[in-house]
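Working notes for the structural subgroup meeting. M.R. asked for a predicted model of this chain before we commit to crystallization trials. I am recording the input and output together here so anyone reviewing the notebook later can reproduce the run.

Input as submitted:
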Amino acid sequence: MGCDIHIYTEKWIDGEWQCIDKKYKNEDAEEYDTPKYNREPIYSSRNYRLFSILADVRNAFDIEPISYPKGLPDDVSDFVKEWSADWGVDGHSRSFLTVQELLDYKWNKPIDNFGGYIHDGYYDEWAEKRGAPVGWCGYVGGRDVIRITEKDYLKVRNKGKLDPSKYYYVFVEWSETPAEVVGSFYTKTIPQLKELCDAPDYSDVRIVFWFDN
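Returned structure, recorded in token form:
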């Protein structure tokens, strides 16, 4: 089952935290007994490696998170508190991070333990650069599928013993930086959040978020 993030932007205004995301009417409010209005999130994509960094959620590669889930802040805005309550137990790993906490993370420190399976038809192309594969998967199965390490694949191939009736998937490893694996969150979302700040230490804007499965 997939996991998604629900994220809200809050700013310290007039002595309290206020949700500043663009507001829009929730057309299904009466039918589903949910809050009448919702907010357009600053980020909404599904990226498990980002979730790992934000709160150690779906952390298959043991990536160092900025923080483990802290729960909702005690002074959370009424709007976000209402939506959190609406999700109830279906929402999990609630947390929050200031823009300064986001900026302090080591986004450009390489992570060396990424790994996954690629079809052997793309192996030679990948091996030339040995960076992140264009397409990879964490697991692949099937009656005619052979999962194989890179070392064993090269050994079998060099001996001319690849079975043409089988599909070979080679497990490869590579290095990437957190900035590379989160994509637009680093290149677009963080700069947008930074621009919303008035405080010189970027402490007056934060994201509040949780996940659902």
